[in-house]
Design a protein that fits this description.
Blueprint: H1 17-26, H2 36-46, E1 62-63, E2 67-72, H3 78-89, E3 104-111, E4 114-121, H4 126-134, E5 142-148, H5 155-166, E6 171-176, H6 185-193, E7 207-210, H7 219-233, E8 237-238, E9 245-254, E10 258-267, E11 270-271, E12 275-278, E13 281-289, E14 298-299, E15 304-310, E16 319-323, H8 326-345, H9 357-364, E17 366-373, H10 376-387, E18 396-404, H11 409-418, E19 420-425, H12 431-440, E20 444-447, H13 450-463
Parallel strand pairs: 2-4, 2-5, 5-6, 6-7, 17-18, 17-19, 19-20
Antiparallel strand pairs: 1-8, 3-4, 9-10, 9-16, 10-15, 11-14, 12-13, 12-16, 13-15
This protein binds guanosine-5'-diphosphate.
């Protein structure tokens, strides 16, 4: 039947979703193509579990703290800032223990006389942020972009901004190292206008705070700016009165304690004794520890806690949920593990390839591109030329990230998260990036001449504009 449909395939080849549907209708079967996400939803449905949007009753919603990731160029002070915030503001516990690095921590601050909490993800940089996003998890509400005032906007600053904007996460800018001689915070503001970040004092709506992570200057102002940005742009509420759900942000195997996972509760309240499943790891919460290493018995939304009691190690970025009984947790984990195995066995179809652009565009009518090149001139030239392709209003070409240098794992993760194609212009993918791209089914295209890239993209875009039949 496939040959008659014009598909020259062998038994081991993979085919596009549409071909499967067509094949089904030819043979009188109703073929439904489901994404792994849909499949998982069906799995949870079968246990009568709702995951994600369902927040329960409006009157049960309570304000939850914003979850913040700190990003920026290397050496601009991300780690130092996380340390300074942790030391000066970490919320006191009875034991008052020294803070442990569990992957995230909460601080307490005051806004308009009211005590408020903020959760910080303790892994600086956009790699973790985007890796999590690539797995469909949204852990971050607000991104703090750190820019050293003595160095100004650098490539990874731009990269971090692109990643935050691609994820629709509001940005607060921390202009760091104002204690250094030659620091020029005004220049940073001016530079960032080019990326759509206009300071409030210049008539924009992005909050900039001049800080010194080293001397602890204006840290409170930064925390205030985070809360003000959250209050102004986001409706951060969650229902604490439901079974807990959220994300595993870090996990490892501890020699003495077994699998240990730091989870971020996003809704509901997590309690000791709960039956829990994260990705394909099941278990029961035997103990919960906070960032001081103190035992806690329950964790409210936006609270990060270390959970002991999983029977295997969940993956970072896996979503977790609490279920009625251990048996259900185990069954969900087993089913997911079986599905993973099947998925690995099946040859992976490319996430988006130029050949099935048609299908991808019909869904989104937007083609996302990531451009990496050997120098900024060529990247700009390629982007400009691509943007000139005129295919009418039905499809939109969007360059979500561009940069100089080889194609990195970060690029591939961003491509996964945004369903983008990566174009390499006179550059190659770094070793591990190719591996990741193959695993994730991200398409990387290499070019050495601009017109060839233009021609291919244009052909593909035009191809999908042909009338449907
Ligand atoms: P990261 O790569 O962005 O995490 O940067 P780090 O936090 O490791 O900081 C890089 C260097 O800059 C370290 O030597 C820090 O001590 C220093 N540093 C960070 N913040 C400041 C600051 O506000 N003032 C000064 N003078 N140095 C800082």
């Amino acid at each position: 039947v496939l040959f008659h449909l014009g598909e020259m395939v062998t038994a081991t080849a993979s085919v596009a979703d549409e071909v499967l549907e067509l094949l089904g209708s030819e043979m009188n079967y109703n073929v439904q193509v489901v994404s792994p996400e849909e499949e998982d939803r069906e799995l949870l449905d079968s246990f009568d579990i709702s995951f994600g949007e369902d927040l329960g009753d409006e009157e049960d919603l309570e304000v939850r703290p914003p979850v913040v990731t700190i990003m920026g160029h290397v050496d601009h002070g991300k780690t130092r800032l996380l340390d300074t915030i942790r030391k000066t503001n970490v919320r006191e516990t009875e034991a008052g223990g020294i803070t442990q690095a569990i992957g995230a921590y909460q601080v307490e601050t005051e806004l308009d006389g009211e005590k408020r909490l903020i959760t910080f993800i303790d892994t600086p940089g956009h790699e973790a942020f985007t890796a999590m996003r690539a797995r469909g998890a949204k852990a971050t509400d607000i991104a703090v972009i750190v820019v050293a005032a003595d160095d100004g906007v650098m490539p990874q600053t731009v990269e971090a901004i692109n990643h935050a904007q691609a994820a629709d996460v509001p940005i607060v800018v921390a202009v760091n190292k104002i204690d250094v001689e030659g620091a020029n915070p005004a220049k940073v503001r001016q530079q960032l206008t080019e990326y759509g970040l206009v300071a409030e004092e210049y008539g924009g709506d992005t909050m900039f705070v001049d800080i010194s992570a080293k001397q602890g200057t204006n840290i409170d102002q930064l925390l205030e700016a985070i809360l003000l940005t959250a209050d102004a742009t986001l409706d951060l509420r969650a229902n604490p009165n439901m079974p807990a759900q959220g994300i595993a942000i870090e996990a490892h195997l501890d020699r003495g304690r077994g699998p240990v996972a730091t989870v971020l509760v996003q809704r509901g309240t997590l309690r000791v004794g709960d039956s829990i499943v994260a990705g394909d790891a099941a278990g029961r919460v035997r103990r919960m520890l906070d960032e001081h290493g103190d035992d806690v018995t329950e964790a409210l939304p936006s609270r990060p806690v270390q959970v002991i009691g999983f029977t295997s190690v969940p993956g970072a970025g896996d979503t977790f949920l609490v279920v009625d009984e251990d048996r259900v947790a185990r069954q969900i984990a087993d089913r997911r593990r079986a599905r993973e195995r099947n998925a690995e066995l099946a040859q992976r179809r490319k996430r988006v390839s130029l050949e099935d652009l048609d299908a991808a565009l019909r869904k989104t009518s937007q083609l996302n591109l990531i451009i990496k090149g050997d120098n900024s001139g060529s990247v700009e030239a390629l982007e400009e030329a691509l943007m000139k392709i005129d295919v009418g209003d039905e499809v939109e070409l969007r360059v979500i990230h561009r940069g100089v240098g080889g194609i990195t794992e970060g690029d591939v993760n961003l491509a996964t998260a945004s369903d983008a194609i990566v174009l390499g212009f006179n550059v190659r993918a770094e070793g591990k990036a190719t591996e990741l791209a193959n695993r994730e089914g991200v398409e990387i295209r290499y070019y050495t001449v601009i017109y060839q890239a233009i021609e291919e993209i244009e052909q593909a875009l035009k191809g999908m504009l042909k009338p449907e039949y």
